[in-house]
Amino acid sequence: MTCSRCGVVREAAARDEHGRPLCPYCLVSDPANLETCISCARRRVVSVRTPRGPLCPACRPVKMMICSICARLAPAEISEITGEPRCSACLKKRRARCAGCGTIRPVRGGTTASPLCGTCISPASLPHACPGCGERTQHRSRRCARCSLRQRLDELLRGDNGMIHPRLQALHDNLAGNDRPDTVLDWLNKNTAAAILGELAAGERALTHAALDELPDSKTIRHLRSVLVATGALAPRDEHMIRLQHWLTATIAGREDPGERQLLHRYAIWHALRRLRRRAGSEHVTHGQAVTVQRHVRAAITLLDWLTARGLGLGTARQGDLDTWLTSDNDTHHGEAGNFARWARRQKLTSLDFAATR
User: Fold this and answer.
1) Interhelix angle 219-230/191-202, nearest 10 degrees
2) Residue 145, pLDDT score
3) Which of 185, 204, 312, 320 has the highest CB neighbour count under 10 A?
4) Cα 8 from Cα 3, distance rounded (Å)
5) How confident is the prediction for the chain on average, in pLDDT?
6) Of 239, 303, 242, 310, nearest in space to 267 by CA
7) For the purposes of burial, counting CB atoms within 10 Å of the CB of 198, is it exposed (0-12), middle (13-18) or buried (19 or more)?
């Protein structure tokens, strides 16, 4: 359910005074459930209660023991599954392919050479069973991460007729079979990615690059596009070149002087971008190549702004003016502006001489 406080889709842990669902994270961090720690004097979640008063997780004392998994002497706690000490690194971060079932899961026992997940150690000792697949776990959630992921995918990708879009079937299968279902579930619970996937599955938005280009550019959109391309839902394209074209168009259109826009269009589109296409050939443009073109265009704009502020232009500026700009400490892009100055000299737009440095 959608948490009424943070807006993330999770299984509800409780309801507030108005009957609205709360996820476990918002329930724990609710101000009514916080107490003042006797060590740091901050209002935080209570981790342990002592005769002197409550302690938060950061101030809670942890014993130094030899971890049964990595064999290191570190702050450790006794595992509820194995009854042996386990350090925080093995508890929170260590994931490996289980020597028992062969799946990549959090390590709950065994050794670093032969790790075991919680199900393979002692299934009968785990108190909770998933109602979907029957897998037993120590977590109290109603469903395991794998079943929750499949349920979430069905909600997003199945249309009104109960069928999945043929081009999204590979996406469904890849995400459902991911080795880290909890990570995929967290990504799907983000409002932006889930909303766009729902529109694509329902046919409200066309499953094309052009339809995604209509959305504001963000890391979420870029990642979603790469996932759709990797699963075959969209055809691959040169993303760095496309983004560079959009950036050049917006940057040139943002200049107020029509003559300057025409000059920058000649330099950026007909020179820099054309040369980049010729060098790339049939290969895709790299991130470094696109950034280099952006630096050259920014340097050209910086030089033109400096000349305009002093009532000069490319045709009226003299070599002494260029030397003054190159020796000034306030401006940047001194080196990258040489590409623009040499191009302008070849086009007979200026008499400035900017020597190339190898």
Assistant:
1) 50
2) 79
3) 185
4) 6
5) 85
6) 303
7) middle
User: Are the beta carbons of 175 and 235 closer than 8 angstroms?
Assistant: no
* Type of residue at 97: R
Two structure tokens written together for 117: 């997940």
pLDDT for res 216: 87
The pTM for the full model equals 0.63
Q: How many residues does the structure list for the chain?
A: 358
Distance, CA of 86 to CA of 305 (rounded, Å): 62
Long-range Cβ pairs for the range 12-15 (8 Å, 24+): none
- In angstroms, what CA-CA distances link 212 with 28, 187, 200, 259, 263? 38, 18, 10, 33, 31
Paired tokens of 160:
């009104």
Query: DSSP state, 221?
Result: H
Distance between CA 125 and CA 82 in Å, rounded?
Answer: 9
Residue by residue, DSSP assigns 27-46 as: HHT-GGG-EE-TTT--EE--
Structure confidence at residue 77 as a pLDDT band (50, 70, 90): confident
One DSSP character per residue, 103-144 reads -EEE--EE-SSSEE-HHHH-GGG--EE-TTT--EESS--SS-
